[in-house]
UniProtKB/TrEMBL annotation:
Lineage: superkingdom: Bacteria
UniProt keyword DNA-binding, yes or no: no
UniProt protein name: CobW family GTP-binding protein
CDD domains tied to this protein: CobW-like
Domain CobW C-terminal: 216-304
Gene3D superfamilies associated with the record: CobW-like, C-terminal domain (3.30.1220.10), P-loop containing nucleotide triphosphate hydrolases (3.40.50.300)
Family the UniProt entry places it in: Belongs to the SIMIBI class G3E GTPase family. ZNG1 subfamily.
PANTHER family on file: COBW DOMAIN-CONTAINING PROTEIN, COBW-RELATED
Catalytic activity: GTP + H2O = GDP + phosphate + H(+)
Alphabetical list of InterPro entries matching this protein: CobW-likC_sf, CobW-like_C, CobW/HypB/UreG_nucleotide-bd, P-loop_NTPase, Zinc-reg_GTPase_activator
A Pfam family this chain is assigned to: cobW
Keywords for the protein's UniProt record, in alphabetical order: Chaperone, Hydrolase, Nucleotide-binding
Keyword Iron: no
Amino acid sequence: MRKATATIPVTVIGGFLGAGKTTFVNHLLATGGPRTAVLVNDFGEINVDATLIKGHDGTTMTLTNGCICCSIGTSFIETMCEVLDAEVPFERIVIEASGVGDPWKIAEIALIEPTLRLDRVIVLADASRIAALIDDARVGATVRSQFERCDVVLLSKTDLVDAAALGAASAAVLGLRPSLRIVATTRNSLPTLDAPAKASTFRADSPAASDHSATFRSFAYRRDGAFDRGRIAGAVAALPPELLRLKGSCRLDGEDAPQVFQMVEGVWSLSPADQPDTAGIVLVGVGTADLPEPAVLDAILDRALAAGAAA
Ligand SMILES: Nc1nc2c(ncn2[C@@H]2O[C@H](COP(=O)(O)OP(=O)(O)OP(=O)(O)O)[C@@H](O)[C@H]2O)c(=O)[nH]1
């Protein structure tokens, strides 16, 4: 990597599947600030997040080939080199970790590379789900590890919970690390990175290497056709609970504008997509290791296809 005269701050954004990481990254980009390189890493084979990051002044680069916290592979190093060697230098790097990733493993890169400076590790926690996720037998260990070394927790989606549930969510997070700084947010009240970073004390030892492909499986659904809006709810209700997250883009029968499809634990939404060239349906999902075979999931989602759509 090129010898730079100044170090570039790196902010790592982590948090479990659907916690609101991309929403936060888009907020950071929308609120201005220095020229930013955004690196996004999805767990699935298709990096949907890169397409969900709104256009901005800097650049968005995708990190594929699985979860970068499991193996900091050559693609990550090459991408970092590209960012550091950019003709117009970047003033900030924001890395969105995958929803099953350990953000600290990514942050360690910034501690090793002399041209980078670790700004902070921010973990998003969905206020409506975090207490249950922390105790979940299948995903709890992954969720808990994401909080081990972060600097601040954004307790997201507080618009979805009442005061008692908000208290339970923050108590669950503080139960992991009583000294954690928690900021309650909604997508309309997210902070920026401008406030000075909170000083943190980093432990020198590394966490044990993990391989999230043993705990989680990804799934991709592609069709040339369109969904029938009226059939989506039924198909989503029929999806197994092991499928924790589904997102991507689709077309709806009889409608021109492409849509972003989001599903977090059975709660789904459609919103107009920014990218005008969405063809057909491309969805990626992540579930626990006992996720049913792709053919089963395909068959369920096929039920939402408009009559005559290609299967
Ligand atoms: N009600 C509510 N929904 C939110 C809020 N923030 C994000 N969402 C929704 O939650 C869903 C997931 O948000 P994302 O930002 O894509 O979550 P993510 O952590 O990037 O998801 P993965 O990358 O798949 O792990 C989307 O449908 C968002 O619109 C919020 O403050 N309130």
